[in-house]
Design goal:
single chain; 105 residues; 4 helices
Length: 105
């Protein structure tokens, strides 16, 4: 199993690898460090995310909440196909949406 990683880029954050119960705990310290210096509007790039489970969804919500509490706005994009059913199940589509979906709304 490959490890999940989080890193900063010019537009915000990039997540790579599986976001699961086995991997998200290891991302939290680095995520706190990186989110503390995000600009007011930042993107979370999910293009390289592989498998995602409910722990991965919870991790995305935690990222969103931390940013919200600091007055920042996060955009998650692109939304992996495997994530869409979980967002619907947990009624989180308004929080974890991508900019393309917002433009169509």
């Amino acid at each position: 199993m490959s490890d999940a990683r989080i890193r900063a880029d010019a537009g915000g954050l990039v997540l790579e690898g599986p976001l699961s119960l086995a991997t998200v705990a290891g991302l939290d310290a680095r995520a706190r460090e990186l989110t503390s210096v995000l600009p007011e509007y930042a993107r979370v790039d999910l293009e390289q995310v592989g498998r995602i489970d409910s722990a991965g969804v919870a991790f995305l919500v935690i990222l969103w909440r931390r940013a919200y509490e600091k007055g920042q706005t996060l955009t998650f994009e692109p939304i992996p196909d495997a994530l869409r059913p979980l967002l619907q199940l947990y009624d989180l589509e308004d929080i974890v949406t991508d900019s393309a979906a917002r433009a169509l709304a």
